[in-house]
Amino acid sequence: MKIAYHDIYTHPLPADHRFPMVKYELIPAQLLREGVITPQHLFEPEPAAEEVILLTHEQAYWERLRDQQLSPREQRQIGFPQSPALTMREIVIAQGTIDIALHALDHGLGFNVAGGTHHAFAARGEGFCLLNDFGIAAGYLLQQKKVKQILIIDLDVHQGNGTAALFENKPQVFTFSMHGAHNYPFHKESSDVDIPLPDGMTTGPYLKLLEDTLPRLINTVKPDIAFYLSGVDILETDKFGKLKVTAAGCRQRDEMVFHELYKHNIPCAVAMGGGYSPHIRDIVNAHCETFKAGLQIYGDN
Questions:
Q1: Which residues of the chain have pLDDT under 50?
Q2: For the chain, which has fewer Cβ within 10 Å, the N-terminal or C-terminal residue?
Q3: Matching InterPro entries, A to Z (predicted)?
Q4: What is the dihedral sign for C-alpha 26, 27, 32, 38?
């Protein structure tokens, strides 16, 4: 197993966004402290090449982003003021997701400590997402003929609207999103399968929906690789999630995803996605449980 981590994931962020993002430092630190991983599991991605980004994003948007020419309106949609450091952060995250996907194809499982920037569209960013890392990695794998069919499993509490739009007319990438019906984004795009969840949904019904849906999708899509966005903003402690899933239920969700994929010998590339509980320990613990669940089921390869 390989884990993409780079200190640029955290440090370029504006001070008022640092609290939820400090998890990118704390997750690998906690896994190392607990002996779940060793330093050899961690690697620092390089920036993604421009030609790779352009497999997914429109050139005019990419050039505005690269050259710091985003309009004030575009910056408001994204939620961050533009800066070269933030752009570099997204480019590195994208390459990290490519790298862990390639590792997963050879060894079964790979993790990006960041990633899951699923609100970025081909020609615009929004929701704190500038570039779509799953989109870029999927485009790269297909262009390089590494795979023929991809399944994206997006279990962040927010719909992966950018991802859905990117692959709306591309049957090689099947998008599945299970998300809060009344949560951001308030205008939803159309994934191949969307399951909108009511506010206040608890652990049992949540897991039952996933159990009833995921095996069928895997059997139908028959992917060569799955990308899994394992957001922990489904937790009952989350400030914005509006769901009532327990920490144990979040771990069961991860185990279910990994078990179903492993059972069918499907490699899995994992990105962390969102988490906004008031106590950082709740966010970090839940994300660390995702790593532990993956290692438990796939083993350390």
A1: none
A2: C
A3: HDAC_classIV, HDACs, His_deacetylse_dom, His_deacetylse_dom_sf, Ureohydrolase_dom_sf
A4: negative
